[in-house]
Fold:
Amino acid sequence: MIFYTYAGYPLLVFSLVKLKNMLKKERIYPPVGFLPVTLIVAAFNEEKSIKSKISNCLKLDYPPGLLKLVFVTDGSTDNTPSIISEYQGITLLHQPARKGKPDAISRALSQANTPIAIFSDANTFMNSDSVKSIVRHYADPSVGAVAGEKRIMKSADSVGQGEGLYWRYESLLKKLDSDLKTTVGAAGELFSIRTELFTPLPEDTLLEDFVQSMLVCTKGYVVRYEPGAFAEEAASPSLKDELERKIRISAGAFQAIGRIKSLFNFFRYPMVCFQLVSHRILRWTLCPLALVVLLVCSVFLYFGSGSVFYEIILFFQVIIYISAISGWQLALKNKQIRVLNIPFYFVFMNFCVFAGFLRFIRKKQTVLWQRAERQD
Structure:
């Protein structure tokens, strides 16, 4: 189970993609050119970074007359709305009440009269060719959404390096998924959708980016992955902030399972169901539990039989967990030993799944995200 989730499935998808390319030629569609696009940015109390974000958006290599910028600042109590209002050509949506990102995005979509909408976070910075790289995929009528790549800026601490390594691994897997059939979920830092396919989500939706992109598949479309369109952001400033972020994501993952349940119909969505379960559901559910079961069983089997085989299995697990604990202790002191980053972040992620599950069943996770000051 554990091997399949993190290594077996990527190897299997890699093999299936190679086989697919051998048996079926890729269909080439006529270029769509420059389609009208609405770029939507949800920003809450981002006065320190909003000018940089606006500057980033204005430097995007896309015809200005075809790129509409919409910023939503609901609930912001700092100078974010007033800063945005100083710029001509940017649509500002603001209301005192803060209902969460799903509501803000839905309001912004009401201002989008373009066939394509792109979403980007206020604390991320897009490469200049990102819009062009995304739009080209819509030449294929089966493409309903396009996921950009999330990149973590280089960081000196173990949290940042662990997060960066994870997203490099995740980006590789997203590309393989896309080449096989569909990317399994988009990250809110940068993703796009055909406006007509947008589904208004309940206000309490925690992972609105993932749910929104997967609902595209229920309508018969696929999600493409475009590494040529990327959004960079700084790593979490501390272990505490990364812990809170991961727990929130995990709580949202369990909520999302219920909101995309129609995709578990294997007979209607065979390939999407296979990819969703293999890439996401096992990682969110059975794999963390399997780690605990494996450790407990290894202890009992070793002391019960004295077998060298079980001794080796238990030994490797003990080494991993000791390394993870050591990495955790160093992270608390803002120190690191690079070789410990992988076991630390792996165990850290799986711990957050358990914590997220508890928060989900206790209904303690709010949709309102408390922003952290990111690293420079």
Q: What stands out?
A: Residues 308-332 form the longest helix (25 residues). The radius of gyration is 22 Å. The CA atoms of residues 129 and 230 lie 9 Å apart.
